[in-house]
């Protein structure tokens, strides 16, 4: 299956890495409509070009601390239709919590050293552009350690594993295959998570997203 072309804004302060990523994405059918080396340039490019996805590094000039993810949160607030894929060497749990506070739809957070193939990165871009979620397991672990421990600690090890896989954007069928259990068993674990987190079924609510975000509520408020 050939992926459709995506319009991407790429923020990366390393010129060599940025140019290499532009070539790789172009070879995979993505159109990099703008690149940015600083957070202000990123914000301006997103507002001007309205891409489907913005790829954001966390640490950018001038202080090389959290300018990139701070800009990602601002993009999320000002241009919510643009997907955000944080691509970094670092996990910033507090800012990630803020980025995810209003929902995980259209959000990704991948660690550079853990992406083994370009195809994985491009697949994540498409997932985020389609309103899905792409979270590295290590990011999920960090967020769970900094969130509402009481509710997470109420989960069994299997329920916690199912929640982690949900946070990575897996469907029940995919989770069942990964854990080598029946889809019905996964449904029971998911239902248990909803119950323990006090999430009631309504037509308007996405309980899967709310389950992932429940333990982030304190940091995201």
TrEMBL record:
Keyword Magnesium: no
Domain Response regulatory: start-end pairs: 7-127
Residue span, HTH luxR-type domain: 148-219
Gene3D superfamilies the UniProt entry points to: 3.40.50.2300
Pfam families linked: GerE, Response_reg
Coiled-coil ranges (or none): none
Residue list for modification 4-aspartylphosphate: 57
Keywords on record: DNA-binding, Phosphoprotein, Transcription, Transcription regulation
Xref: PANTHER family: TRANSCRIPTIONAL REGULATORY PROTEIN NARL-RELATED (PTHR43214:SF24), TWO-COMPONENT RESPONSE REGULATOR (PTHR43214)
UniProt-recorded name of the protein: Oxygen regulatory protein NreC
Upper taxonomic lineage: Bacteria, Bacillati, Actinomycetota, Actinomycetes, Kitasatosporales
Gene responsible for this protein: nreC5
